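Phosphatidate cytidylyltransferase, mitochondrial
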Amino acid sequence: MSLPALSNTGVLYRRILAQFPQDISVAFAYGSGVFKQHGTSQGQMEKNMLDFVFAVDDPVTWHTMNLLQNRKHYSILKLLGPAMISSIQSDYGASVYYNTLVPVDGRMIKYGVISTDSLIDDLLHWKTLYVAGRLHKPVKMLVQNENGKLRAALVSNLKSAVTASILMLPESCSEDDLFLQIAGLSYAGDFRMVIGEDKSKVANIVKDNLQHFKTLYSNILRDCPQLVYKPQQGKLEVDKSPEGQFVQLMALPRTLQQRITKLVDPPGKNRDVEEILLQVAQDPECGAVVQQGISSIVKSSSITQSIKGIATAGLWKTTSYSSKKLMKMWRGSRRKPSVSQMS
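Structure:
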């Protein structure tokens, strides 16, 4: 099964990609500059920054080439050279190196570079949920090579998003409920949702992109043995029995299982994961425990990646970028759209 590709790559995206070294295994564009969000006009959308992620097999070589082609994109860290930049990329935060507020072809862009191996690790195990979380939502896939392991990891990430979300949903729910839950996974515990992000961001992402979410998830929902999917009515019925929830918990990514066991198992007891998850499956608060586990992953990665972002962007760009985020947050608080309006 292949990832449903939203790959209508316009001339603009091809022109932007042409400015970078071409040894890229995956490139995608995401965010409010790419997909319309509720409450944003077409004119506003065209002024928003375009966000990209590039996965590369060899970060040292890629940064070497990019420093030759686009040295001005980098902060003062460029003086450390490509090997140190690659080390900062892989060893700190969420294993992504961002250059932000970069003018390219008439648009302002931000792009993150991650190694292909780190991306696969995050997709399969939710080590940071940083890039994996972005790929829970519709993205515009620009480049995707024939790496079978990477393709399988992209699909596995979507399946994990469904599994984690149905553990937090009631027995009967709507497609909208599921997509809101999925879209919110990577924001759970993110300190930027307290200061710096529009509080209605998750609802805004889903409301105007329901068809994109259906394209991304319909096959997975039809094939999932833990639920009954009724696409005509837009309804789901989830197996909430202890046995069903145990199967779902056992299918979760490894890091999330570890976070759940740490929350539930008292220090020094050292029970095995299967025994602990069996206990959680029978707990009426099972969904809340899963939510806490996800929040703990996102919280740590969002803080460390943001601290790293100050160095990779430089102080002036960090201040400029943060002020724009705060302005969007303020505008969003004035609109205050209701999630219930989605139904």
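Confidence is low (pLDDT under 50) at residues 4-9, 336-343.
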